[in-house]
Amino acid sequence: MLERSKLLLAVWTVLLAGIPLFGAGRFHIEDATLPAGATGQEIPLLCDNDFASPDDPVYGFSFGLTYDPAKISVTAVEAEGTLAEGAAFFGGRIVDAAGMVGYGCVFGYETIGDVTLPVGTDLEMATLVIDVVADSNTTAALTWETVQVWPAPAPATKNILSVDGVSVVPTLEGGTITIESVAPVVPVITEIQGGSGFEGTVFQVVGENFDQPGLAVTVCGSAAAATLRADNVTIDVTAPACGTIGLVEVEVCTDHGCDSDPQGFEYREETEVPQFIRGDSDDSGGLDLTDGIKILNYLYLGGLPSVCHDAMDSDDSGSIELTDGVRIFMYLFMGGAAPQAPYPSCGEDATPDGLPCAASSGYCEG
Q1: What is residue 275's predicted lDDT score, i.e. its pLDDT?
Q2: Do residues 101 and 214 share a domain?
Q3: Contact in structure between 344 and 287 (CB atoms under 8 Å)
Q4: What Cα–Cα distance (Å) separates residue 245 from each residue in 191, 254, 275, 358?
Q5: 231 alpha-carbon distance from chain centroid
């Protein structure tokens, strides 16, 4: 164990503090373009090794990088999938506040010489993981430099290849990250479903770019309760009070802008009594397999409800449950009981409950 530690110390001393010679080999970074605000971006740190093993075996390497921490932030240096993966030693330090990274790699120290850097070009030494800090168009340089990542008297980390016991400085070619600001993502309304009823009617606004900060919906010029579904494209909106009968504007806004439909929701006369066919979940005017499936989709997969929720309450229990879908399947295929009234014709709910039925189904409305 003592001999192994001494050998590791000797190799590491060569990597960090050896007197460098200039020779073949190259450290380089390819230029990249990243959007402002991007996180977890991987930047390969590449090496060309021109030393032919076993004549000039490369036992390890070390590298130092500098960057502008006001533009990018280095969050990790990863070995997985690179030359450093499986090395006897790979470690170092990120000093993000100062914009410095220093790491070293030793391929083998128990049987040094058996594991060396292969000959080749564009060999990935390690992977730099960065977040983009800048929020406007700019560039950020990644520069190979000697860095003091540990306080003196610890030696600085140099850019070297350890070639058969000699520190060799390769050609150093840094990279440039071009940062591009991202245009604001403005919400877009593509469809409004169930957009007819009264105060308290729940309807759906479907569109794009709703998953942004500051989401808000107004109906008839008033703020409306709104919940964005997990699909990020559907908003459940509850119609607020409105002194207007007829078509009114629905507007969706985020911090990036707004979109509206000037005829997005229709307020109806409160005197109208909604009519529906119980069990006819898809508003087709009849009962089939799809009606039961629609109930289950609504309950368990985030599917859309019927315009009149009472239509989905096939057993008239006052709530929409698994048994409502099962009842339809039993009726269709097992000779079970038919849905409660109104069925099979359009009619009113004879047993008022808490389920919303703000408007007649499209079939019953004619």
Answers
A1: 86
A2: no
A3: yes
A4: 21, 28, 20, 14
A5: 12
Strand ranges (DSSP E) for 107-245?
120-132, 138-144, 160-163, 166-173, 175-180, 188-193, 196-197, 202-208, 216-219, 222-228, 234-238
CA angle 306, 309, 313 (to 5 degrees): 110
The confidence score (pLDDT) of residue 303 equals: 86
pTM of the full structure: 0.51
User: Would you say residue 279 lies in a domain?
Assistant: no
The pLDDT value given to residue 136: 85
Nearest to 174 by CA among 302, 63, 286: 63
Domain count, the chain: 3
Which residue, among 137, 140, 173, has the nearest Cα to 32 in the 3D structure?
Answer: 140
User: Can you tell me the distance from the alpha carbon of 138 to that of 179, in angstroms, rounded to the nearest whole number?
Assistant: 5
CA atoms lying within 13 Å on the CB side of residue 320: 25
Q: In which element (H, E) is residue 340 found?
A: none
Q: Residue 290's pLDDT is what?
A: 92
Say whether pLDDT at 10 is over 80.
no
Share of the chain above pLDDT 70, in %: 88
Residue 297 contacts by C-beta under 8 Å, 6 or more apart in sequence?
303
CA angle, 20 then 26 then 29, to 5°? 120
Q: Examine the pLDDT at 19 and tell me if it is beyond 70.
A: no
Last residue of a domain, one of 151, 180, 209: 180
Pairwise CA distance, residues 265 & 221, whole Å: 12
Whether 13 has a pLDDT exceeding 70, the answer reads no
Q: What is the pLDDT of residue 179?
A: 94
